[in-house]
Amino acid sequence: MGGATPDAPDAPDAPDVIVVGGGVIGLVTAWRAAQRGMSTAVVDPRPGGGAAEVAAGMLAAATELHPGEEPLLDLALASAARYPAFAEELAQAGGADIGYRPCGTLVAALDADDRALLRELHALQRRCGLAAEWLGGRECRRLEPMLAPGVRGGLLVDGDHQVDPRRLLAALLTACERAGVVFHRERAATVAVSRGRATGVGLADGRELPAGQVVLAAGCRSGEVGGLPPGLLPPVRPVKGQVLRLRMDPAAPTLSRTVRAVVRGGQVYLVPRADGELVIGATSEEAGWDTAVTAGGVYQLLRDAHELVPGLTELPLTECRAGLRPGTPDNAPLLGPGGLPGLLLATGHYRNGVLLAPVTGEVMAEALATGELPALARPFGAERFSGARAEALT
User: Could you tell me the domains of the chain?
Assistant: First the structure.
């Protein structure tokens, strides 16, 4: 098959590729690998879950730009540019619309200090060649009449769109099934290693699944899978994010586009769906593996969102959830060869897993098929963190 290698296991039923992790990154990798002719399996006790199940789905290449993260911008913009065709293809392959909305994003500031921070973001965006228009407070309220009278200014970014991550996950699951991907609804306990290469996955129930290549795409759990030398464990950590969902009247929506804000120096976003759902997020907490929804987190989000859009406090609150983003030391993903023959990484996407899904699927399929990471993704190879990787193998 397309992904087999000369040293691959000779078990007759061994797939070319096993992907550990059935979140959006694992599923898009498996789908694209199967499209390239590789027999592919996914190992995950609950495929279709993960951080994307909680995420708001902002495709925010420009408005998620942070100082020091400029190297990620080219990858983010490339993936954002792929989204219209990706959404159309996946709607056909997965049999359902994924909620892609090219609605643009408005970033607002509520006081002079917040406006100064927003001006700094605008300057960074302009230095990076991004299109973002500065608006006064009155212009912001003309675009979004429900905004608070105190809004002091904002940025209109027409190129930052949105998608519904839950619909995206459901479509990817169906697309994988239709493409022949096999699902093992078990937990991956180890990566099997033999004679210096990854040869499959050991399950929690003791069974071993051989494979030609193994992709670690288990989000913040990627570093928890056993069997690898310590120097090869991906440096990912969980970053907790609490998110709320409210219900708007579809006949009189509260907002027409994604609205983000700087409120007392902190970030809040409101993402309106076409079906009337309004997503409010998200906290950013270094809280280990804790996924409890807290009164403080809910209060913080509602307080900041209320200051931005006072009328939303009348809306029904339908859901409070917390998820774990997979963070890396530089907040950029780990893509491609994992320092051991037969092992690849697709993890550490942090805030941008949904945005980077199209380009991640492409580059991982190429790496699996050819052994080479496309040039666009090379700055995000796992070796950038691993001076000890070569030593770990000796």
Answer: 1-101+161-235+328-394 (3.50.50.60), 105-158+238-326 (3.30.9.10)
